[in-house]
From TrEMBL:
Pfam families: Gpi1. It comes from the Eukaryota. One of its GO terms (biological process) is GPI anchor biosynthetic process. The keyword Transmembrane applies. Residues 685-707 are annotated as: Disordered. Keywords: Glycosyltransferase, Membrane, Transferase, Transmembrane, Transmembrane helix. This is Phosphatidylinositol N-acetylglucosaminyltransferase subunit GPI1 isoform X1. The keyword Transcription regulation does not apply. Residues 687-699 have a biased composition (Basic and acidic residues). The chain crosses the membrane at residues 250-266, 272-291, 346-365, 406-427, 434-456, 468-491, 512-537, 543-564.
Length: 707
């Protein structure tokens, strides 16, 4: 039976050349897929002396597994993999099946491979361990990589050369994933839809799909992403590692003081917002102000929705910044996802506030110019578009001969409504100055999204007369279309069946046909006049709704854009992997060897590096924008277009996705300040701990591996 095995080595361990410490121990995971397929993931190497400083090895491994993600110990437990010798002859090969009668490794370990030097220390562990594997690796200076496998104990068999890919002994070298630096991920990006497959496929394609994958990479990649956390946890448990020297350094003290000042500033600012929001919430709950709250929610619907979203972000950002699950951060991939999710709220809020301050300050310094421009635009829109358009439709628009009486009635009603609304706005013109100031203050205080939503509500209220006229003419046009359709079915001898949603045959009387003919003729002749007014007000209303939809689209873009991911991607693209690939570094085969030579004399050697693909900026943004447009489909657009032809009103909102609102938070102001301060300090401590793992733990691991 051919055995399939891969050895995954960290890069510092695979390139070691130092032989000052002759005997060391390998720790990691045995990922067994079947009786003939095995992955050996080496996390780190350490000397034998470290085991005598702490608790027993079984307790250390058990506590280390408790710190790993929940899914990893179920598939592969963190354990002692074997030993690593630098004084063993590189040319010595272990004999196969060199076990004692009782199935132990005594004969091989005492006489061939030198494993007896750790037997006394690991005797208790071997009795309690359920693992049936043990790997022995040696230093080989003649190879490009300074380490190779000498033999492996595999289910009471001793195998010196594993059969991988028809005789290739493969070693895969990986860079240890570290939080904030890089990690590996198997998630692939499907940017384009799948193309339609041909009806008939070649036989070799069907056979290829029937073949089972050689190795389940999910568990292997998960264990590789947990290698750094396992090393740190093991060393803390076995050697009781302390970081007092770093905490006493001047750089650490300055960094701590800077973070404390930043936490105090942000906590005080957030507490100010918290007190303001609680004041608004308490005042709106009083019966005296309840009518004002109800009226404002109806008139300023978009403003209230975005104000609620911003209020929840301000209230909950310290809670979201904290990290509750300590086991998930052991995997670098999960820690990166949790970090991006934590930072998405405050980054979106910060960018929104910056944009709001830019727009708000611009409006405050140019209030007079904006007022004059609004007056000029309102005058041109009312006189040049609405009034001139209605007068034009009352005559002969584009050479079409309309019904003079009906066009005069519709035109006069429209002009009277426009004149009444314009007169009311003349009295309200003095409030436009304060209205612009209100938009600026909302932008500076709560961000650009709240002020933009307020602008949508103001535009909706200011064009209420256009909406009313469009609704009235739509009502007339739709009923006229429905009456003509019913009369046309009468002439064809058809009747609409509303239960089955189909046309059934029906026999009408002569009187019904006569009445239908008398009604059909005037309705059909008056249809062009009604259609012209309907088209005019539909275009005007759709233009206004398009402006509001464009602002709504900008609001959703501000909410949906992952600013934290974009900033991190610009600085370190390696933190966004997308699939893995293997770079063959060394492949050696003795082509001059005779066919009688055994594989042990001429083994195939294959060394490859584990590499990652990375997401592009478009691949990062597209999932967020796809979620935002999840409520819009081609069918909904087609339905709206058909509705316009039949006399239905166009929707005034796109229905884009916004962050979901959360329950209102109630807690004392002092407790909220402590919560904000503690979340920032804890976040800085996590960052310093990750820096410690980069600067202190990993160099120690490389030093121990090189020793």
């Amino acid at each position: 039976m051919k055995r399939q095995c891969r050895i995954w080595l960290p890069k510092p361990l695979s390139s070691t050349d130092d032989d000052s410490t002759p005997h060391s121990l390998l720790f990691g995971w045995f990922v067994s897929h079947s009786s003939s397929c095995l992955d050996v993931v080496v996390a780190f190497i350490t000397d034998e002396v470290s085991l005598s400083r702490g608790s027993s090895l079984q307790e250390i491994l058990s506590e280390t597994n408790e710190m790993m993600p929940l899914t990893l110990p179920d598939k592969a437990a963190f354990t002692l993999l074997g030993c690593y010798d630098t004084c063993l002859s590189a040319n010595g090969n272990a004999p196969k099946n060199a076990t004692d009668e009782d199935g132990s490794y005594g004969s091989l370990c005492r006489y061939s491979c030198g494993c007896h030097k750790v037997d006394g220390l690991l005797e208790e562990f071997r009795k309690d361990s359920l693992s049936s594997h043990w790997i022995h690796m040696v230093h080989d200076s003649s190879r490009e990589r300074g380490i190779r496998m000498h033999h492996i104990h595999w289910n009471e068999d001793v195998v010196s050369q594993c059969d991988v890919h028809h005789g290739h002994c493969q070693v895969i070298v990986y860079d240890t994933p570290v939080f904030g630096s890089h990690h590996f991920s198997l998630s692939f990006w499907n940017a384009s839809p799948q193309t339609k497959a041909p009806l008939q496929k070649p036989n070799w394609v069907n056979d290829l799909h029937k073949r089972q994958p050689l190795i389940e990479m999910e568990t292997v990649i998960l264990s590789i992403n947990c290698a750094a956390s396992a090393e740190i946890a093991y060393k803390k448990l076995s050697t009781q590692l302390e970081t007092s020297s770093r905490k006493s350094s001047v750089t650490y003290l300055i960094s701590t003081l800077a973070w404390w000042l930043l936490a105090t500033l942000l906590s005080s600012l957030s507490s100010l917002y918290y007190s303001l929001l609680q004041l608004i919430y308490v005042l709106s709950s009083f019966p005296i102000f309840s009518w004002g709250r109800i009226a404002s929610k109806r008139l300023l619907k978009n403003t209230w929705i975005n104000f609620r979203v911003r209020s929840c972000q301000i209230l909950y950002w310290p809670t979201l910044l904290q990290e509750n699950d300590t086991r998930s951060i052991s995997c670098v991939e999960d820690a990166e996802k949790a970090s991006l999710q934590r930072h998405s709220t405050w980054s979106a809020m910060a960018v929104d506030l910056v944009l709001g301050n830019l727009v708000g300050l611009g409006l405050l310094f140019n209030t007079g110019s904006v007022c004059s421009w609004l007056f000029h635009f309102a005058k041109e829109f009312t006189n040049d578009i609405l009034r001139s358009g209605c007068v034009w439709l009352m005559g002969v628009p584009a050479g079409f001969k309309l019904n003079t009486e009906l066009a005069g009635v519709l035109g006069m009603v429209s002009l009277n409504v426009i004149q009444i609304w314009s007169t009311l706005w003349i009295f309200m013109a003095s409030f436009i100055f304060y209205l612009i100031r209100a938009v600026a203050v909302l932008g500076i205080t709560f961000g650009a999204t709240v002020s933009a939503a307020f602008v949508i509500d103001v535009i909706t209220f200011a064009t209420l007369h256009v909406t009313a006229l469009h609704w009235a003419i739509t009502l007339v046009y739709s009923h006229q279309i429905q009456a003509l359709a019913a009369l046309w079915r009468l002439f064809r001898g058809r009747k609409m069946n509303p239960l089955r949603q189909r046309l059934d045959s029906y026999g009408y009387t002569v009187k019904q046909h006569v009445v239908g003919s008398l009604l059909f003729t005037p309705l059909l002749l008056l249809l062009p006049t009604t259609s012209v007014f309907y088209i005019f007000f539909t275009i005007t209303s759709t233009t206004i709704n398009s402006v509001c939809m464009l602002i709504e689209f900008a609001i959703s873009i501000v909410h949906a854009t992952p600013y934290a991911e974009i900033m991190i991607w610009l600085v370190r693209r390696q933190r966004f992997p997308c699939g893995v690939w293997f770079e063959i570094e060394h492949y050696k085969k003795n082509i001059l060897s005779s066919s009688n030579d055994s594989p042990e004399k001429n083994p195939f050697r294959m060394v490859s590096n584990l590499r990652s693909n990375f997401l592009s900026i478009g691949q990062i943004l597209l999932p967020h924008y796809t979620t935002m447009f999840s409520g819009i489909s081609a069918s909904s657009l087609t339905t709206s277009a058909r509705g316009v032809l039949s006399g239905k009103r166009m929707p005034s909102k796109l229905g884009l996705d916004l962050p979901p609102p959360r329950p209102w938070m109630h807690m004392p102001l002092r407790q909220y300040w402590i919560l904000c301060h503690g979340s920032i300090i804890s976040s800085s401590e996590k960052g310093s701990n990750h820096d410690l793992s980069l600067e202190k733990e990993l160099p120690k691991a490389s030093q121990s591996s090189s020793s």
